[in-house]
Amino acid sequence: MAANRLIIGTRGSKLALWQTNHIKEKLERYHRGLSVEIKIIRTKGDKIQDVALAKIGGKGLFTKEIEEAMLAGVVHLAVHSLKDLPTDLPAGLVADIIPKRTRGADVLVSRNGSKFMDLPPGARVGTGSLRRKAQLGALRPELEYLDLRGNVDTRLAKLDRGDYEAIILSEAGLVRLGLTERIIEVFSPEVLTPAAGQGALAIEYRQDDSTAKELLIFLADRKTTSEVEAERAFLHTLGGGCQVPVGARAEFRKNGKLSVIGMISDLSGGRLLRDQIEDYPETGPGRELAEKMLAAGGRRILEEIYGSSS
Prior knowledge:
The chain is an alpha/beta fold. Helices cover 35% and strands 22% of the residues.
């Protein structure tokens, strides 16, 4: 690639374009004379809008086609929502540039301003995530949890027209799109543990592209990188993806230690495990927590889920 020209591959949703343009602006501001182009690529996850993510199957629903374009040299890099990026990347690609994360929680948006615990029995709650359904179902099994797909605007429109009484979204997406006024409630990770990497961006590029890495390295944030590495190590040890209800959130405390919360559940939320450890990141707290929870019953839960889906 030319040292003064980069092409970023991205999905075409408003949020994906915001994220890509966010990185584009930072690159062009930091590297005077650098030209950054954007190429929109449709992924399998974008094309299938009428089926729940957990039922589609396979990893890389929102990344595979973009990664193929990178490997073919059509684009030089991609900006992903890290939670959409599988823990095992295709050979020849790396995603080790993680900018600073600001928001990583799940939030509730409701039609009449009700918080989650105030929703009436039987209220329809929309989410496309098994992880969210399981955790919320454990808290309030009397609510009706319905599948919800589409970009942020589409999901909000479905709420506003009355398809649901409330929906669950990522805080980061609403903040990035300037829709913070829609947020009614922010869930703590002890109540609704987010997906691994939620709220963080990851920049993926070819491993042999030293020019791209040199241009991108200034964007990397050490603390966020350590946090998401712990979260993804937890997920990787479990072998999880969007087909299983697992979550992880890591955050540095004031004492300099990394606190990691992990969650494993069956599909209904009837058996839900949540645990937490605090340690220095060098000891691998994500993997350590996953192994601890697997031994405490998590392995049996996951085996039953995988067995029922095979």
